[in-house]
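dumping the sequnces here before i forget
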Amino acid sequence: MDAVIDPAPTRRPSTWRSRIGPTLVLIVCGLFFVLPMITMARYSLQNIITPLLRWEDVFKKWSLSGIKAAVSDPGFWPALKLSLELAVATVALTLLLLLPTLLLVHIKVPKARPLIEFTTLLPFMIPPIALVAGVAAFFRPNAKWFLNSNFSLVPFYAILALPFTFRAIDAGIRAIDVRTLIDASRSLGAGWGRTLFRVLMPNLKMAIVSSSFLTFTVVMGEFTIAQTLLKRTYPQFMYEFYSNRGQGATALALFTFLATTAVLGLMFFFVRRRDRRAGTTTTVF
Amino acid sequence: MSQLSFQAVRKTFGPTVALEALDLDVGEGQLVSLLGPSGCGKTTALRIAAGFEFATSGKVVVASKDISNVPAHKRNMGMVFQSYSLFPNLTVAQNVDFGLRTRKQDKARRTKTVADMLDLVGLTAQTSRYPHQLSGGQQQRVALARALAVNPQVLLLDEPLSALDAKVRTNLRDQIRRIQTELGITTMFVTHDQEEALAISDKVAVMSNGRVEQYATPLEIYRTPSTAFVARFVGSMNQLPGMVRLDGGVDVAGTTLPTPTELPAGQGVVVLVRPEAVSVAEESSAGFRGTVASLTFQGADTVVGVRLDVLDALVLARSESTKVGQLSIGDRVGVQVDTSHAVVEAAATEPAA
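..and the predicted 3d for all of it:
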């Protein structure tokens, strides 16, 4: 039983004076995030030359021509397609490596966890440019075919995403009693495969989804490695397009931002809703 | 015939010996408890039976078949765990169904088994709930139904009641025993709670340091503990220091207790006697004398604490409340000790006198 303590006697009467501080903070933060978006939107989507943009024209001459130009560029779809393929491949590789490893570490060698946690932080300490320079120096003379493939980016993206993916999956594993669930499943006759797919994965669903999404965003936004290895990924396309048509590229950036936010929101909404039904406790990274 | 038997099962974890040559037979349809303090090897024994651990040497035999090397999921065991082990993403019915699906039984049969099992544990109204919507006691009952649904050869219970509060605990304990008797299923029950073990078992194996100290019925364990460890661990005991006499009895501060012992004369010993074997009498009677130091009313019985004049020892006597009702603290009384079930152990050090 939770003891319910009535907070009323100790609470000061809420007046506009006590609310003014928090409200002000919210307004400032809101402006900080929203103003650049509005500016971006006006710059890229209003058919008015930038120096002539005035507040009186806020509702005039809006047009999607900038974004249309970006989308109809011959480089757009291949770049987007490549980045999406890389993202899917990276998610698959990450889950394939990380899920069994972390489960094994959790059950068999819990002492190794701090070491692994530290290792996953390395991508934060090693700048991507240093990583890619080393990679290029090693693979160019030794395995040029590897660097020639677009998918040579996948392992590096998996490494770059490690600080996020490790934490998401680790938190998910620690939120459930893995050991007992495995024992229970096995004592009921389930082999390792069934235990993994019918017991562990469903209960790590939220962790898997957040880890996948974080991987996805890392891949969709990575520029340094792709640029250095001359791969035409989506960020690379945006960069090139920007040097030709600033307005179109800004419109593209704005739409990309809105699209990822929408996908993220929808994903969490659906998983959350199904989870609430099942009542599993999940940790969002 | 024994349904489950451990034959010289030894288990080591690195330098630590968890089990030292365990020999134990669990008869068909019996409920046997493994009782002992934490670290005594009882859970290791259970996990070896379940197949979660493998014995370093020795054999585990179920229904005359050596299953020592059979992995957990190929053994036909039902297990209930100490911590809540229901699959959080499945409903009560789906949890119970899990083992049946694994065994690829047909739908109609599964549905019937699930209904029967939930009826058995009294949870028919909760079939479509999720584990987090149930109380701890209900969760353990679902876990029991889930373990029984697969019709296991042996039911293994790993301290299933220890996470529950006192009242639920007693209820569920009795329910487990009722169901176990009803189904006639061979059961091994691990616990550190002696009251629990004595209450529901056909036989109790008291364990310490990886060894079975005594394996007997609850009554024998309580009445005639075979070692001092068992005597101390099960129930409470008075300890009277003394010395073995030439004629075989034990001298406790000038009073001779007629306790048979194989220890040599002159050996310093401790005599262990249950409170119910101690009685309070008139001060003039033979035996020890002392002053009433405490009175603990426990309903039908009252436990009288008497500070003896000799030894400066506090002795507890359990008597019917009606017989000692008129006593009050500070009263002078005589104390008589019935040593017919007393245990004599060699003292750790020689007594000073």
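Chain A has two domains: 16-57, 65-278.
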